[in-house]
Amino acid sequence: MNKNALDFAIKYGFLILLGGLALFFSLYASGFASPRSAVFILQSVAITGILALGVTCTLVVGGFDLSIGSVATSALMLSAYTMVILEQSAFVAVAVCLLMGALVGLVNGLLIVKMRVPDLLATLGMMFLLIGLQRIPTQGNSIATGMSLEDGSVAEGTFSAAFLWLGRHRFDLFLDRLVPVPVVVFLLIALLIWLFLGYTRHGRLMYAIGSNERAAGLVGTNVHRYKIVAYMISGMLASVGGILLAARLGRGDIASGNNLLLDSVAAALIGFAVLGAARPNAFGTAAGALFVGILLQGLTMMNAPYYMQDFVKGAVLVAALVFTFYLSSRRGGRRTA
């Protein structure tokens, strides 16, 4: 493969694959190409994409956050508990969840930078801690209006209309197409993270930390502070995802976030292959989330067995990463030679 073809394949190969996948499902999955299907895909990837953007921030500083799925589920349960059991307002529920996400991110960051616990172990431990903690108040039961409490009484709190608006309202943005609030939130967060990482001094310093932490520290960068902030951003974005999921479901379903971690990590890692970046980036993560959504929606509409979806998703992830890094290493080798 000559240099120009290799550069083209590295930079545009994933986008071509994405377009080819959409074309394939449009031809062989009835109804896939409809505007309704497109909106459903965007809605299905919005929450996953928000969590993946949080993972991206930790990847940028050379870390990794395995606790995002449990943080999102904890926010889902905490918001439901705050409104249904404690009978608080939507504002209080959202504020408490965001505070919880920031606190979890802070603890993760302190464990990693102060206690020297490896990021995978620290966030894995936090994941198990949250999984257990979120089940204690309700003894593992989901939370819904009218549920029976331990003392024999009935929960009288409800999900407020303002809270449900976050997950169920649709904006009439263009061509009479109704776009759900979570999609708008996802796109706004993706834009903000993209601008922050790519066009601000702080974002560039975070990339510098991820590339060479020691060198970044030697030039005066507060490495510990930036790494802690990255994990706090991840925790807060995971909480946003949990809030939107709770608002869409209208109940605290403890099993609803089971696949959030794997899908979010897949989207963030697939993003390495977008435009030949070979590094974490917000645009690539958003494209990766869209890719996962198109893949799962297409397989569902073609009546593919549900147990095949994780296999196909994993195969695509491995192929995308091998494709990106193998071709990038060949290009680097040729330039060195």
UniProtKB/TrEMBL annotation:
Gene Ontology CC: plasma membrane
UniProt keyword terms in alphabetical order: Cell inner membrane, Cell membrane, Membrane, Transmembrane, Transmembrane helix, Transport
Location relative to the cell: Cell membrane
Transmembrane residue ranges: 12-33, 39-61, 68-86, 92-113, 120-137, 178-197, 228-247, 259-276, 282-299, 311-328
Sample GO molecular function, one term: transmembrane transporter activity
Membrane topology: Multi-pass membrane protein
InterPro entries: ABC_transp_permease
Any matching Pfam family: BPD_transp_2
Protein name (record): Ribose transport system permease protein RbsC
GN (gene name): rbsC_5
